[in-house]
């Protein structure tokens, strides 16, 4: 985004503070644009006025231009399942945040039989890994044409489309690609890929079917030329593939190309390469090695480019041990560093507790809270869980930093009226908060029991310590 | 259209720090290891040459520690013999250095006296010819004494003392390093300002030479704070390259922390709705690898690790990207 201050945006707004956008003032709306939580078109009066008045329309267009991200945002798929890629503004997440997590597409190919295709598609659709209150999932399916038969490709693409996930269509053969697009262009698949050899036909396809397209070349001059040609012909949604080579000098070269592309787009302000970047970790499967080594290496390639600027990827290995680090890393790199992920403080009832059941306390850091909550729930433990507002910090950190204090525990006990809900006065605190035991007892008058270090051990601990022996 | 790559040059340079000393240099090591010297972000060799590759140290303990099964099974035969353990780490698993953790000195464990722990240091120095990192037990009161004694018996060997922290007698550890010619690991908890403060204390108040300091800004595992660790290290490295003289030192990472993540060691997911996690023998090493490789991209120069498979893969990644 070119502008850095809300003032520069304010000039373009109606300045009536009407509040229709949901913010009290145009100035706070402007600040939200800087944060990228809203878009200029979220100001209804401005949009309405622009429809009538060409002058305002021009102003709105200018505003959109100066507030659009440095790297073009491209949408694959349609409806609520669509996935956005690109749209980045910075090279390092601490400079602002990264916005659109790397989209992960897993492959099927059209020389598989239908049953195998269904198996792989189901795995992609069904994959889920719980993490800080959400399920991490996979984004889409890349359908590779290995038959080189337009009819078969079309058939398979249709079958895969039935799963409702965004798709990448993979074939260098324009005829196969055309056949597939005739079937599923409506779904807005990403087509892969236009090269030095087939670009004329692919340009036609991209224009005719209005689908986003990958341009591919190892030579960055040629890659840029392709992007410029497509742009000038009227294709807006372009993705760059600088070719992922899986090992040695090749992988090193890939790393260099990806960084040069993104750095030149953002710092060099070269709009001709300011597009999302495609990485194909699946290239690891061309290596001579055993399955696990190939899966590991694919995970390695994916990880490198989740950290460094890969916006969309085609992968192969559907083994959970390979997927899990990839989706977790993606979440970590793409969380907004400006705010810790936190949950509402307060009281949670776990598994319909009775007044005799134990009372636990934890913090409102999402990672901490969900770990504890899931350990209690899945361990079939009945209990009352107090969630302390530690400003989104974990147990040890907030004890060390003074956000987890006896006084705050006292307030929380009051606010949640837990004393009316249970008929005992025992509070179980995390092992890592042991040093607060005395202070909390003094402050609240409750008896404090120090629980285990890891909430995963609460179940075993309760067997020994609950109900409490001494009264 | 011609693609003109945007050029980036930094004014600063990361200090070069050498660990270990050969006979000619007053020690008994057969190899020494130098880290640092970067003038660009990690592996950006198109900006500036990377004079030294990141290296891997394998952890050795002077008493049985708690280890994940997948790690322990590789060390089962040497768990009670630190010298053998070190030898195995170097010979079989390709460790560039060895980190000896003197955890038996912990008053809550064996409370072994510093002078006795120092004997283990001598044994390990005998057993391997690579440079050594010597760690205490993490006990703030006792570590200064333990590391001082270790520094004394390792005089001339240019070991790294791990670690000095703000909430202990860092001065004593710094002085020991200065007196016996060692390097200090300056360890802070994910706070760039604290890292600056501690480094400045060690350099200015203790008078530690600039070529004798390495930083550990704290490693959190993939899924358990890696986002903080990555960004903290990346910011520290960029500040150093931009010329911040309090932060332009090599970085060390306790990558073994990755094994604390439940995804690395638990039998399967405690969450019913999760897709089954798959065999943990395969999950653990890749968890350590991905944690390490992410931090390698942030600028880490020394990785402290444990699983031999993870060590091998991270080495391959480093060699590939550095070219
Ligand atoms: C990530 C991290 C940070 C992040 C925090 C992000 C956040 N949102 O919390 C940042 C960078 C901000 C940070 C800052 C600091 N940190 Co810090 N940080 C860590 C780190 C690496 C991981 C902590 C974590 O997230 N763990 C994962 C969560 C899920 O764990 P958890 O909250 O403890 O929950 C578990 C258990 O407590 C238990 N549990 C939780 N609730 C309950 C409830 C019951 C009833 C039971 C029985 C169990 C239970 O089960 C959970 C799952 O296992 C640790 C080191 C490490 N590797 O552990 C240091 C660490 C916690 N930090 C530390 C310190 C000192 C700090 C700072 C004070 C540094 C400084 N000087 O500025 C600041 C404090 C900031 C503040 N409070 O103002 C020290 C704490 C030392 C101590 N014991 O006092 C640690 C241990 C590092 C170290 N080895 O020295 N830190
Ligand atoms: S809707 Fe538009 S005019 Fe009204 S307050 Fe929001 S920004 Fe201002």
From TrEMBL, chain A:
<feature type="binding site">
    <location>
        <position position="21"/>
    </location>
    <ligand>
        <name>[4Fe-4S] cluster</name>
    </ligand>
</feature>
<feature type="domain" description="4Fe-4S">
    <location>
        <begin position="1"/>
        <end position="62"/>
    </location>
</feature>
<feature type="binding site">
    <location>
        <position position="362"/>
    </location>
    <ligand>
        <name>5-methoxybenzimidazolylcob(I)amide</name>
    </ligand>
</feature>
<dbReference type="Pfam" id="PF03599">
    <property type="entry name" value="CdhD"/>
</dbReference>
<dbReference type="InterPro" id="IPR023427">
    <property type="entry name" value="AcylCoA_decarb/synth_gsu_arc"/>
</dbReference>
<feature type="binding site">
    <location>
        <position position="26"/>
    </location>
    <ligand>
        <name>[4Fe-4S] cluster</name>
    </ligand>
</feature>
<dbReference type="GO" id="GO:0051539">
    <property type="term" value="F:4 iron, 4 sulfur cluster binding"/>
</dbReference>
<dbReference type="GO" id="GO:0005506">
    <property type="term" value="F:iron ion binding"/>
</dbReference>
<keyword id="KW-0004">4Fe-4S</keyword>
<feature type="binding site">
    <location>
        <begin position="392"/>
        <end position="395"/>
    </location>
    <ligand>
        <name>5-methoxybenzimidazolylcob(I)amide</name>
    </ligand>
</feature>
<keyword id="KW-0489">Methyltransferase</keyword>
<feature type="binding site">
    <location>
        <position position="43"/>
    </location>
    <ligand>
        <name>[4Fe-4S] cluster</name>
    </ligand>
</feature>
<keyword id="KW-0411">Iron-sulfur</keyword>
<dbReference type="InterPro" id="IPR016218">
    <property type="entry name" value="AcylCoA_decarb/synth_gsu"/>
</dbReference>
<dbReference type="GO" id="GO:0046356">
    <property type="term" value="P:acetyl-CoA catabolic process"/>
</dbReference>
<dbReference type="GO" id="GO:0008168">
    <property type="term" value="F:methyltransferase activity"/>
</dbReference>
<keyword id="KW-0479">Metal-binding</keyword>
<feature type="binding site">
    <location>
        <position position="455"/>
    </location>
    <ligand>
        <name>5-methoxybenzimidazolylcob(I)amide</name>
    </ligand>
</feature>
<keyword id="KW-0170">Cobalt</keyword>
<feature type="binding site">
    <location>
        <position position="18"/>
    </location>
    <ligand>
        <name>[4Fe-4S] cluster</name>
    </ligand>
</feature>
<comment type="function">
    <text>Part of a complex that catalyzes the reversible cleavage of acetyl-CoA, allowing autotrophic growth from CO(2).</text>
</comment>
<keyword id="KW-0808">Transferase</keyword>
<dbReference type="InterPro" id="IPR011005">
    <property type="entry name" value="Dihydropteroate_synth-like_sf"/>
</dbReference>
<dbReference type="GO" id="GO:0032259">
    <property type="term" value="P:methylation"/>
</dbReference>
<keyword id="KW-0408">Iron</keyword>
<dbReference type="InterPro" id="IPR051069">
    <property type="entry name" value="ACDS_complex_subunit"/>
</dbReference>
<dbReference type="InterPro" id="IPR016041">
    <property type="entry name" value="Ac-CoA_synth_d_su_TIM-brl"/>
</dbReference>
<protein>
    <recommendedName>
        <fullName>Acetyl-CoA decarbonylase/synthase complex subunit gamma</fullName>
        <ecNumber>2.1.1.245</ecNumber>
    </recommendedName>
</protein>
<dbReference type="Pfam" id="PF04060">
    <property type="entry name" value="FeS"/>
</dbReference>
<dbReference type="InterPro" id="IPR007202">
    <property type="entry name" value="4Fe-4S_dom"/>
</dbReference>
<comment type="subunit">
    <text>Heterodimer of delta and gamma chains. The ACDS complex is made up of alpha, epsilon, beta, gamma and delta chains with a probable stoichiometry of (alpha(2)epsilon(2))(4)-beta(8)-(gamma(1)delta(1))(8).</text>
</comment>
<feature type="binding site">
    <location>
        <position position="368"/>
    </location>
    <ligand>
        <name>5-methoxybenzimidazolylcob(I)amide</name>
    </ligand>
</feature>
